[in-house]
Amino acid sequence: MTPEAPKVLNGMASALLVKLMPEVRTPFGQSVAGMAGMLAFVLAQESDRAVDRLHRENEAVAAILRDAAAILPDEALSDRAREAAGTRTPPDLRVSTMQAINDRLRAVFIEVHAAIEDTPGDDARALEERIWEEIRESTRRRHLEALM
Hints:
Blueprint: H1 5-20, H2 27-69, H3 75-86, H4 95-117, H5 122-141
Helix pairs in contact: 1-2, 2-3, 2-4, 2-5, 3-4, 4-5
């Protein structure tokens, strides 16, 4: 049997919050048990969705960077955007690999966002709106379900 991380972490969170915390006698101990339980709960959610979230973000950011490369007035930034967008295919699906790609894409994404804000024209305004929509969507992807 291979333990599934979300199930194990949810079980740990439940045990810490429901069974252990009431048995702890000091406020400090209860606080530590409660924090450990909440962290296990958060990790359970994130471990289940991390690869999917990162894949979706990498694809969305890469698409924006590809389109930005065509309208950016700064040729060097345009080249970096095009290059970053072309290197989003992971060699494996480990969270650390996907996160490293996400980090590289987002570093260029931030530069592109700043440059697009200063770029005149309707194409730049449309791309700026796509950037803000991706930022909002990225926040939604990180939403945590309420505990219990």
